[in-house]
Amino acid sequence: MLFNYAAIGLCTLNKPILNIVIRMFPFLPTQLLDFFIGKIYCGGATPKQVIQTGEDLSKRGINNMMLSLTIEDSEGTKNIDINYIVSETIKSVDTILKPHILKLVESGSHGINDIPPGYIAIKPSAVISNPVNVLLNYKNSEYKEQWNELNNNCAKIIQRVAELNTELAKQYPERRSPFFVAIIDAEKYDLQQGVYQLQRNLYQRFNKADGLVQVVGTIQMYLKDAMDTVKLDEKLAKTHNYRVGLKLVRGAYIHSEPNRGVIHDTKEDTDICYNSGIQYVLKDLAENSENATLGHLVVASHNGKSSRMAADLVTTSTNPVFKSNVVLGQLLGMADDVTYDLIEHQGVKNIIKYVPWGPPLETKDYLLRRLQENGDAVRNDNGWPLVKNVLKVYKNRLFG
Ligand SMILES: Cc1cc2nc3c(=O)[nH]c(=O)nc-3n(C[C@H](O)[C@H](O)[C@H](O)COP(=O)(O)OP(=O)(O)OC[C@H]3O[C@@H](n4cnc5c(N)ncnc54)[C@H](O)[C@@H]3O)c2cc1C
Q1: CA torsion, points 260, 263, 266, 271, in degrees to nearest 10?
Q2: Beta carbon of 264 within 6 Å of any ligand 1 atom
Q3: For a 10 Å CB count at each end of the chain, is N or C smaller?
Q4: Residue 253 gets which letter from DSSP?
């Protein structure tokens, strides 16, 4: 693994080197990418490997995962079997997330409300053929059948989540948050209106006003209209009597967004929007506990300031409903310093890692986004400190 970190450090020595690597990316053999960077950012190719990843994370105080079977085909060109993705995703809740959380609960070393839920991520464009057209034309009657199929495919996965929540809630009635949550990932901006509608349909079906939040949607706070979307979601939920769960991210598509005008003009504006989103949701949860419309929050960020701010608000609360329905998350292989700091210095228990898994060939698009994101971190700093630290560890191992 150290060797892999050294490789990432060398790729991100400076912007020009990183840009060359990014341009070469599509032509690099999958085995090479898997060997050098896949091991850092991906949880494995098989459920057995992912279970091991979960155990390794637990040893570091990260007690659950946001699993994503990363078989991507956003352009609809790879002819992927959608039924296979849906059934494997459902299976992964039973074969990975369920044994993982039961092991933690039964170990007795964690408070029942201190274990974060196991999340199952659903990328809308991965669970329907021809996703771009379906999501762009969700109001168009010509696409009604495919739109319904997309909704049904997501619902099949969430139905299993709901069944398992009911089963475990009977065994552990003192738990104040769900054991499992399905989470809808956000995509490129032009697809998002369709994704928002999908999220709303699923909230209405699975997040009853008097029940747990079992589906969480994603809002990209780098969008200028992000807070309007949060408030609209809240209003619709109140009108139609259901609850909303939100994963707040800044947003991963800034590099490929053709209309830059929809994204905040500056990073500072994105930061302000992100932090105010956290405060807005936490206010509702703190004031209304089980009756909060915005009933579950995932602070999905590598930003130390935003994460610390959320952690401060959560760890100082004594309300168990509030506490156990707020989870902080980072991507596997990224921001491990932030994760460590939150656990060791802020006493955060509800912390998870986003763990993509699947065949190496299919995770290529995901890996490219992570490399681009690492490039964002290459500003004044560069990959050299990472290389130096790896060399230091090797030296210590060799010479004691
Ligand atoms: C658990 C988890 C789940 C995620 N799921 C999704 C998802 O479903 N969909 C998705 O899109 N992303 C997702 N992400 C990725 C996430 O969007 C990126 O990791 C995030 O944008 C990086 O920002 P940060 O919060 O870590 O903070 P920082 O590193 O402080 O911020 C970097 C981000 O700020 C924004 N930004 C940078 N420069 C500018 C600028 N000049 N103007 C305006 N904004 C700017 C961009 O969004 C950039 O990514 C997820 C991340 C995590 C941890």
Answers
A1: -160
A2: yes
A3: C
A4: -
Per DSSP, 94 falls in state I
* Regions of the chain with pLDDT less than 50: 378-381
The secondary structure of 316-355 as a DSSP string is: T---HHHHHTEEEEEETTS-HHHHHHHHHHH----EEEEE
**DSSP E strands: which ranges in the chain?**
64-69, 118-122, 180-184, 215-220, 244-249, 294-300, 326-331, 351-357
363 CB within 6 A, ligand 1: no
66 touches ligand 1 (CB under 6 Å): yes
Q: What token pair was written down for 321?
A: 């409903």
In the numeric block, which tokens belong to residue 112? Answer: 């029942």
Tokens matching residue 127: 């669970």
Cβ-count burial of 35 within 10 angstroms (0-12 exposed, 13-18 middle, 19+ buried)?
A: middle
Q: How far, CA to CA in Å, does 53 sit from each of 50, 90, 333?
A: 5, 19, 11
For residue 254 and ligand 1, the question of a CB distance below 6 A is answered with: yes
188 lines ligand 1 (CB under 6 A): no
By most ligand atoms within 8 Å of CB, the mutation choice from 57, 249, 264, 297 for ligand 1 is 249
d(CA 231, CA 143): 28
Q: What is the pTM of this model?
A: 0.91
Q: Which of 241, 190, 240 is nearest to 220 (CA)?
A: 190
| Helices 304-315 and 267-288: angle between axes, nearest 10 degrees | 10
Residue count of the chain, please give it: 400
212 Cβ closer than 6 Å to some ligand 1 atom: no
pLDDT digits (tens, 9 = 90+) for 287-342: 999 999 999 999 999 999 999 999 999 888 888 888 889 999 999 988 899 999 99
Residue-level pLDDT at 380:
43
What is the sign, positive or negative, of the torsion defined by CA atoms of 342, 344, 346, 350?
positive
Parallel, antiparallel or unpaired: strands 294-300 and 64-69: unpaired
What is the distance between the alpha carbons of residues 220 and 253, in angstroms, rounded to a whole number? 10
Where do runs of H (alpha helix) occur along 172-216? 192-206
